[in-house]
Amino acid sequence: MLKAVIFDIGGVVLRSPFIAIAEYEQELGLPKDYINVSIRSRGSDGAWQQFERGELPLLAFYQAFSRDLSDTTANNASYSNYCTRKGNECPALPSRLQVDGRELFGRMMRSSSVYDPYVLKAIQCIRQAGQHRIIALTNNFSAFDSPEQPIADTERAFLGWGDEGPVPEHLRRLFDDFCDSSSLGLRKPDEKFYLLACERNDVAPQETIFLDDIPENIKAAKAIGMDTIRVHLGHTLDAVKILEEKLGIDLTTPEGGDVSPGPSPSAKL
User: InterPro entries recorded for this chain (predicted)?
Assistant: First the structure.
C-alpha cells in the first residue's frame, strides 16, 4: 500500500532548468546536451555536486562551476563517450570554451520559476484526499541564503530568488516534509538520500512512489524498492495521469482546485 508520494522539484513541480541550459548551449554553438554531460561527468566531486550538498558557498561555486564547464579536455572526452554510448556520430567539439558559471546559473534559476499547473493541482488534490504524505526530495540550494551565509539583495535579484531565497514558504508548505540536499548533505542519486527521506517520514521505500525527470535518479529509487514515474520534459500531464491511476485519486479533473499558491519560486535540479 502506498503511503507517500515523493516529488522532485525542478523539472517536476517547477519548470525545468534544463531549458535554460539548452538555450545557453545554442548560444555558444555547443552540441545538444554538452553542458549536461559535462556536469554529470564530474561525478561526486564536481562543483555542481558539491554545491548541491552544501559544501561550496555561492561565490566559490560560481568560480568552480566556470572552471568545470570550460575544461574542454575533460568535457570533450566525456561527450565523445556519451555519443558512443548513444550510438550517435560525435559532432565537432570546441577546442576552447569560456563558460560563465554565474551567468548560466542565473539563467537557470530565473527561467525555472514557474509552477507546473498539472503537478501543482495533483499535489493539492492529494492533500485534499488526505491519504498520503507528500514529500519533496530535491537537489537544492536553500542552505546558501541563511544568516550564516547571507546573499546580497542584488545577487538574490539576479538569481530571481526574491526575499525568501531559493525555497520560499509557499513552495515548502505544499509538502509535509522538504528534503533539501544542501541542508542534509546528501543528493540524488545517492540511495542514502532516498532512505533518509523515508526514515524522516516513517515509511518504507516500498510504500512510496517517486516522480523525477532525471533517469539516474529514477534508477536509484527503483533500486531501493520505490515505485517510480519518469517525468519527461513537456509531458507532466502524462506523468500525473499515471500517478492518478496508481493512487486511485482524481488528479486531473479541470474544475475545482486552486492552482495559484503565490509568486513562483525558483526551480532546482
Answer: ACAD10-like, HAD-like_sf, HAD-SF_hydro_IA, HAD_sf, PGP-like_dom2
